[in-house]
């Protein structure tokens, strides 16, 4: 991971900017955080402004997207900024110099063209594959769903962070014919993730809520976690996801919602499942 603080941030922190590290951002950090793969090549990155992520940084050489001239683009430089002082006290004064190294150019997704453009869907922008087809109101609902997902449980926050660090990129669409039909209600699933984990579809706009997103993002996390061992026809990945959701919910709210129970055969099984989840939370 590379931390590149803004010059003004360095000045305000008296050169302490480089003490940021994973999951422990300094308050109001401004600059860029770049992640690298094990072989040292660039993976992905975030641009921060006063502690908040304002955009993602992607390596254009790895991207299949052409740079569009209508977007607002920024050239990024690695700035080495050094202050040297004579002696141990400041009586002789200090001087500063800086060296700029060109890194690459980034462009805002759907940029506004004027330099002051700021997205109102920054979390969506981080993961939104350009082949997605959501309307702006649907993107806004997705943004709300992501923010709720990230904030309703520390475990979900960790899952989100892991997905982002793995360069999460998803195609989002609305599809009235989502693949699974509930055997009891006859209603199609509100959301689904494709077998290859690259597409999330919602049955309709009203289905873009954090509960539905939560289910599919945990499935995505399972794919990353198990790697080539993930076979969705052989592993009970649906049950595992619902155990995680029930556990996180019970830990935050003190009771078991039992979303796993839809598939249970008797009240007895449901009751013992609820007791098991609450035991896990309390242990
Ligand atoms: Zn599922």
Question: Which tags fit this structure?
Answer:
about 280 residues; alpha+beta; binds zinc ion
Task: Report a brief summary of the structure.
By secondary structure, the chain is an alpha+beta fold. It contains 7 helices and 9 strands; from the N terminus they run βαβββββαααβββααα. β5 and β6 form a beta hairpin.
What order do the helices and strands follow? Answer: EHEEEEEHHHEEEHHH
Structural class: alpha+beta
In total, the number of strands is 9
Unique bound compounds: zinc ion
| Overall 3D shape | elongated
Write down the overall mean pLDDT: 79
Count of separate structural domains: 2
Classify the beta-strand content into a percent band.
15-25%
Account of the protein in words:
The protein folds into two domains: 1-119, no CATH class; 120-235, no CATH class. The strands form three sheets. The protein has a four-stranded antiparallel sheet with strand order 1-2-3-4. Strands 7-9-8 form a three-stranded mixed sheet, with helices on one face. Strands 5-6 form a two-stranded antiparallel sheet. With 283 residues, it is an alpha+beta fold. The protein has helices at 7-12, 122-127, 136-152, 154-165, 210-226, 237-253, 267-282; strands at residues 2-5, 31-36, 42-49, 52-57, 73-85, 94-107, 171-174, 191-193, 199-202. Helix content is 32%, strand content 22%. It has seven helices and nine strands; from the N terminus they run E-H-E-E-E-E-E-H-H-H-E-E-E-H-H-H. It is elongated. Helix 4 packs across helix 5 (210-226). Bound molecules: zinc ion (ZN). Zinc ion binds next to helix 5 and helix 6.
């Amino acid at each position: 991971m590379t931390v590149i603080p803004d010059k003004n941030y360095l000045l305000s922190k008296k050169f302490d900017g480089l003490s940021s590290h994973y999951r422990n951002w300094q308050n109001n950090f401004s600059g860029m955080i770049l992640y690298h793969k094990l072989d040292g090549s660039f993976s992905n990155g975030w641009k921060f402004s006063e502690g908040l992520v304002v955009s993602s940084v992607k390596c254009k050489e790895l991207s299949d997207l052409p740079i569009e001239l209508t977007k607002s683009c920024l050239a990024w430089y690695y700035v080495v900024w050094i202050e040297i002082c004579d002696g141990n006290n400041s009586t002789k004064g200090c001087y500063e110099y800086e060296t700029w190294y060109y890194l690459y150019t980034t462009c805002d997704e759907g940029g506004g063209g004027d330099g002051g453009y700021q997205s109102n869907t920054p979390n969506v922008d981080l993961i939104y594959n350009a082949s997605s087809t959501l309307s702006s109101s649907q993107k806004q609902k997705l943004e709300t769903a992501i923010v709720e997902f990230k904030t309703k449980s520390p475990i979900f926050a960790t899952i989100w962070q892991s997905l982002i660090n793995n360069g999460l990129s998803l195609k989002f669409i609305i599809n009235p014919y989502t693949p699974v039909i509930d055997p009891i209600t006859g209603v199609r699933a509100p959301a689904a993730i494709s077998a290859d984990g690259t597409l999330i579809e919602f049955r309709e706009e009203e289905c873009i809520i954090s509960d539905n997103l939560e289910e599919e993002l945990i499935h995505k996390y399972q794919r990353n976690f198990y790697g080539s061992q993930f076979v969705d026809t052989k592993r009970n990945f649906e049950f595992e996801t619902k155990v995680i959701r029930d556990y996180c919910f019970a830990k935050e709210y003190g009771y078991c919602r039992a979303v796993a129970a839809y598939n249970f055969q008797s009240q007895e099984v449901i009751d013992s499942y609820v007791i098991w989840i609450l035991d896990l939370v309390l242990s």
